[in-house]
Amino acid sequence: MATKNRNNTLSTVKGIKGKVTVNKNMPQYDQHPFFVKKAEDAKDLLSKVGLPKQLSGKISL
Amino acid sequence: MLNLSSYPYTTNETFLDYEFESSGPRGVIKKVANFSKVGPAIFNFGFGDLDEKTGKINDTITSNNGDDEKILATLASIINEFTTMHPNFTILIQGSTSSRTRRYQMGIGKYWDKISIAFDVFGLVNDKWKPFVIGQNYTAFFGKRKTSNPDKVQ
């Protein structure tokens, strides 16, 4: 799905109007304190309110 | 997605992290977005401005760069891309402020005729999830691509 360029670090994903570039050197943000806090807030919310009834049989917490 | 004007964006090989640049009267502002796993197939979608000098991310400031619609379209495109790759994943979205949540709500409502074809969307009201209805105020959103129509929103 991705076409790698000469330096093998940037790839263009086809089929989505040329908007997406894959850069394997781009940082991962999942351990950034901002997103860690957001994820914890989300977990707190889901533990409080649960899932939509319509989806609770299809997914789980 | 939805044939709206949006910014090009970059992701890494995890397809969980995204970057793009807002460009307008206040200059170039780097935006970052991330899908954080909060359940077996549930991901929280977070988004903010990255200060490249400090490394801090802020989602409470209003950048006033005159491109709100284009930013929303870019976020929609990112979500569309992510859920196309992972159609069984569900996405949770909470605005950092009531005004930003309302902005998301208006964005969903504006293109609801197309979004509703491909996604089941629920809004949180009084701590209960309800199927999304245009005009209702919500405090969070939960979306899952419809299995009967897994194609991208056109």
Structural account:
The complex is a heterodimer of chains A (61) and B (154). Chain A is flat. Chain A starts with a strand and ends in a 5-residue tail after the last helix. With 61 residues, chain A is α+β, with helices and mostly antiparallel strands. Chain A has a 3-stranded antiparallel β-sheet with strand order 1-2-3, with no helix packed on it. Chain A has helices at residues 33-49, 53-56; strands at 2-4, 10-13, 20-23. In chain B, strands 1, 2, 3, 4, 5, 6, 7, 8 and 9 form a 9-stranded mixed β-sheet that branches. Chain B has helices at 68-85, 98-110, 112-118; strands at residues 9-11, 17-24, 27-39, 42-50, 57-58, 90-93, 119-125, 128-131, 141-145. With 154 residues, chain B is of the alpha+beta class. The radius of gyration of chain B is 15 Å and the shape is globular. Chain A binds chain B through residues 16, 18-30, 32, 34-36, 38-39, 41-43, 45-46, 48-55, 58-61, and chain B through 6-14, 16-17, 19, 32, 34, 36-42, 44, 46, 48, 56-59, 77, 81, 90, 92, 94, 120, 122, 124, 127-129, 131, 140, 142, 144.
